[in-house]
Each structure stands twice: as C-alpha cells, then as structure tokens.
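Researcher: Here's the sequence for the chain we discussed earlier.
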Amino acid sequence: MVTANTRTLLLGRNGKRTRQWSIGAGVLLVVSLLYFSATRTVGYTKLHPLLWWEGYAVLLTVLVAVQAYSNGGVMLSWLLTFTPVIGVILSYRGIGLGFGFTDEAPGIVELLGVATVGGVIAAAIVGTLGFGIGTAVRRIAEQNL
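Model: Thanks. This is the structure I predict for it:
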C-alpha cells in the first residue's frame, strides 16, 4: 500500500494536472519525432541552429521545472524527459551509434534498446534536475507567502 505522501511525491498533487501533463508527454514524443526527423532531413543548421543538444536539454529542464512547480511528481518529471529523448534517438536512428564492427544501421530491436537506455539516462539526469529546481522554487515561494 502506498501512502498519500509517497503517491504525491511520485505522481503529483493534483490528479487532473497529472493526466494533462501525461498527455503533454505523449505530445512531446510526437513533436520530437517530427521536429528531429525534419532537422535530419533538411540539416539542423539550416532549420534551427540554436535548438540542438544543449538548447534541447535546457528546454526540457525548464519544462520539467514548471511541471514540478505546478504539480510535483517525480515520475511525471521523468516521463516528460523520457518521451522526447526517445523521439530524438529514434529520429536519428540511434544517433549514429554503430553496433559491433560494421557500419550498418541498427535493427529495430537494437534501436529500441538504445532509445530506451538513452531515455532512462536522460530522465534520470534532466528529469531529476528539473524536478529538484521546480520543487525548490515552489517551497521557497510557499515559505515567503
């Protein structure tokens, strides 16, 4: 049985907002797939030179911090980072990672494995960082009221 405090920490304070942010995570996956497929096709320097790895990480951190400030929920923070990073990795077909000693493209199972591992690593780093920032700002704001 999960206590109310643990459930709030994991899923957030408001069930309706949690559902809305979860739907937003799905939308982020689709947008990420489309955007980075377009940048791969056109060439990222021609389409948008500022929104590359560093800019993307900063945008995800800010988005997660806003979610953590408004609702909380560390699992939701991880989800909001996990889904768009999977979109990036799938769009770039493993981000140029070669498997073994050949230059052939990875198969679908290998690509899904790399995307999952990359998404988990990004969620652990960026999602936790954004959650910490948003939660800290919310607590500071609540103390000053």
